[in-house]
Design goal:
The protein is 60% helix and 0% strand. The chain has helices at 54-73, 82-130, 138-163, 175-178, 198-205, 217-221, 229-246, 253-278, 283-308, 312-333, 346-362, 368-372, 388-392, 396-415. The protein has a domain at 370-415. The termini are far apart. It is mostly helical. It is found in: Cell membrane. Keywords: Cell membrane, Ion transport, Membrane, Transmembrane, Transmembrane helix, Transport. The chain crosses the membrane at residues 54-75, 81-100, 283-304, 310-329. It is a multi-pass membrane protein.
Length: 416
């Protein structure tokens, strides 16, 4: 029986396992930025810090109720409200500093990933267009360019895992892209991530500190060197650039300089994101701001009792909701590379980079004749729809007159 040829099916695109509609992921993230909710924004819980405030607000409600009951039935604990103004100013200043510092780190992380997208596109485009393919090695040179462009995608995925304290190479979206590269992390123990217990999952959603896991525990458990996968990929990328310069397929010095500068910038992005990740707000500031915030909230019922009496309870809860909400937002966005709902969607960014580089490689071996000498090239659109060959027979002076007429014609239409 004749053997039937089968066409190899394309592999699925890199998945984004962190972006799903699973109930567990409703309180985890990062948020899918393509998702649109019709709920009014003040009623949305996905991305809100409200669930993390349930236990603190319950404690504040119990505390305010106890102070009010003692003041009403036993002995008045009310004090002069002048402290309200003084402490309120200090708390506002502290939270402003906390949130501005956290958002600065968040914005800086986003800038680095925008730079990564820009320079991977630029590097892939320069190599794909300007690195020639030798007549006697066309296939090898083409496959080498494809391998180099794929390494740029691998760099972004490896950087994502590094920033999430995932130091190994066995991840679903990374391992197939990294098998052919000799990295230090290949020899390390592939310690599997274990699903958190029910207590930890629920507790972390509700903001319980004792339920939060150490994000660096996988790194600490490894008994062998983990290396630096993104840096090692840059080494291989630099080796490829050196090779095409040496064999004469990448000749123009300006493009050689541009390619080498782009690799240097990718290295700068690697160290810059590491700096954002590993330089949090000094612990002394974090402790002091937390203590000042809680002192203000706990003293609040004493200052409100004389004026509001039993209304002190809801007033204290409402004030605590505002203050703790701002404090928790600052804490959540301080590390923009994690898996909280409000963190940067790194999976989506990596997918965009992969898609953009695939588009560059799909362009083939471009020739100017393919897109310039075409009747679909409407040179004077929207003045007229004449294609290249309709205008080609005219003299340069006639073409310049048509270009001038195009400006005058469009201006006349706009003024009419």
């Amino acid at each position: 029986m004749a053997e039937k040829d089968t066409e190899q099916q394309p592999a699925p695109a890199d998945s984004s396992p962190r972006l799903s509609t699973d109930s567990d992921d409703y309180f985890n993230g990062p948020r899918d930025i393509s998702h649109h909710s019709k709920w009014p924004i003040f009623l949305q819980l996905h991305g809100s810090v409200t669930p993390r405030m349930m236990f603190p607000l319950t404690f504040v409600a119990a505390w305010a109720t106890a102070i009010c009951c003692i003041s009403h039935f036993v002995w008045s604990l009310g004090v002069n409200s002048v402290l309200l103004t003084i402490l309120g100013f200090v708390v506002g200043l502290s939270l402003s500093f906390r949130n501005s510092t956290a958002y600065e780190r968040y914005a800086e992380g986003r800038k680095y990933w925008a730079m990564l997208s820009l320079h991977t596109q630029n590097l892939a485009r320069v190599v794909w267009v300007y690195a020639a393919e030798r007549e006697d090695h066309k296939t090898d040179d083409l496959l080498a360019k494809v391998s180099f462009c794929n390494m740029l995608v691998t760099f972004s995925i490896a950087l994502k895992h590094r920033l999430r304290f995932e130091p190994f190479t066995h991840y679903e979206d990374l391992e197939p892209r990294l098998k052919h590269l000799h990295c230090v992390a290949h020899r390390a123990d592939n310690i599997e991530w274990t699903k958190p217990s029910t207590f930890k999952r629920i507790g972390s959603r509700l903001g319980l500190p004792m339920a939060e896991s150490n994000p660096r525990k996988l790194i600490k458990k490894s008994e062998k060197p983990l290396g630096n996968v993104p840096l090692e990929i840059l080494n291989y990328s630099s080796t490829y650039i050196r090779n095409i310069i040496d064999n004469g397929t990448f000749k123009a010095p300006i493009y050689q300089t541009q390619a080498l500068n782009s690799i240097t910038i990718l290295n700068d992005i690697l160290t810059g994101t590491d700096r954002v990740l590993n330089t949090p707000l000094p612990i002394a500031y974090s402790i002091a701001i937390s203590q000042i915030t809680w002192v203000y909230i706990l003293v609040l019922p004493f200052q409100l009792w004389k004026t509001l009496e039993w209304v002190t309870i809801p007033a204290t809860i409402f004030a605590a909701y505002i203050i703790l909400g701002l404090a928790l937002i600052g804490r959540e966005i301080e590390n923009p590379f994690g898996d909280d709902v409000n963190d940067l969607p790194l999976d989506i960014y990596c997918d965009q980079i992969r898609h953009e580089i695939d588009i560059i490689m799909a362009s083939g071996n471009l020739s100017t004749d393919d897109f310039i000498k075409s009747d679909d090239n409407m040179l004077l659109f929207p003045y007229n729809r004449h294609g290249f060959h309709s205008v080609k027979d005219k003299t340069p002076e006639q073409i310049r007159k048509l270009l001038a007429a195009k400006v005058e014609g469009l201006y006349s239409k706009a003024s009419a």
